[in-house]
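Holo prediction. Input below; ligand is (2R)-2,3-dihydroxypropanoic acid.
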Amino acid sequence: MTDVFDTIDAAPLDREAERILRLNDRGGYTVPTEGLYPYQWNWDSAFAGLGFAAFDIDRAWQEIETLFNGQWDNGMLPHILFHRSDPGYFPGPEVWGTEDALGRGACTVPSSGISQPPVVAALAWRIYQADPEAGRARLAALYPRLVSYYRWVMASRAESGAVAISHPWEAGRDNAPDWDEAMAGIDPVGVAPYTRRDTGHVDARMRPTQADYDRYIWLVQFGRDRRWDETAIAAESPFRVADPTMTFTALRSARDLRRAAELLGEDTGEIDGWITRLEEGAARLWNAEIGAYDALNLRTGNFAGSVSNASFLCWWAGLEDRRSLDTLRRVMAAARFGIPSQDLSATSFDPLRYWRGPVWAIMNYMAANGMAEQGLTEEAARIRGDTARLIVENGFAEYFSPEDGTPAGGATFTWTAAVWLAWASPTADTGRGDI
Ligand code: DGY
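Structure of the complex:
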């Protein structure tokens, strides 16, 4: 254990993290943070569940169950559920126009028309492990819905083996340099006039640019015009990028879903097929030129050339692959706090602009747990220590500068609090003594 953990007075921070989860609780679901994100987000919620599991196991399961109340008939689990309207956010349900979307079926929860990194099975499995006795029946009830979600991921996004996104918001890493080429290929003509709300809550320097936003909204209109028909979107959209975040989180989740299947006595054949295909897809994302896994533009066949924090989720996905270890060490050596969402030596690096440089606690959680599982204990320990220091020194911010830890984005952030409770706090039951 690194020194940093000996010096931390954990109790007040543990209490504050619990307070944040309760503060952001809207009754059965948790908003990422008041104001900036006033609805239920898919992967934020899965992490909220992980955080609740540290002190309220029933509430942890409830978070995941509420998320699945918004699942479409075709299995898709939307990236935002608009449980109640909030004019402080744009684009709201009227912009997404999913009421008559193909595949939505009888689901009555208003939602967006895209998904998000499919971490939910992996984190549901972790919640189960936190209290198997309380979790078995909940996991069993959820299991068919989980399977139907991953079946949708494989059928609708995994045409290249790797999992693709149809919108940058789907990757969760909205403005990562990974999509720069694909975004430049969009001419955002015909975007209806709109007012951004995010920059009313947070400094514009920490958010995507206006050029990004025009294209985000153009892509929403593109999907809406096709009634969110996946086949039409896959065939016609100029934006289709195979993404390491989606691929590695899907692969990790498929492995954990398989563990759940074994526990519950379910057949594992279909999941085994997914694992094989995802492993083949992950291999396609290896970019030898940068020594890391990379985003692949399926329209041009070009790699992005982006050494991002998503590149290092490969170990969490269960890949026994040391090829990017030198790259990780180089990236970490240049950063005071790791893992930066973009390599500091890249021309696109920007220490405070969202996914173009800042450190994110959830990415650290996934990456470092994967490293620990694969025996990279020194790297895992540094990342856990950095995450703890960022929170101790700067609070539960949405993200942090890798150069000096400056807190950025929203404050009192749900998933930062959750990662503290589940892993970064010295009192956390990480499930492993080695990190
Ligand atoms: C936002 O509004 O910034 C979100 O990231 C979209 O999901």
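The chain has a mean pLDDT of 96. That is the main takeaway for now.
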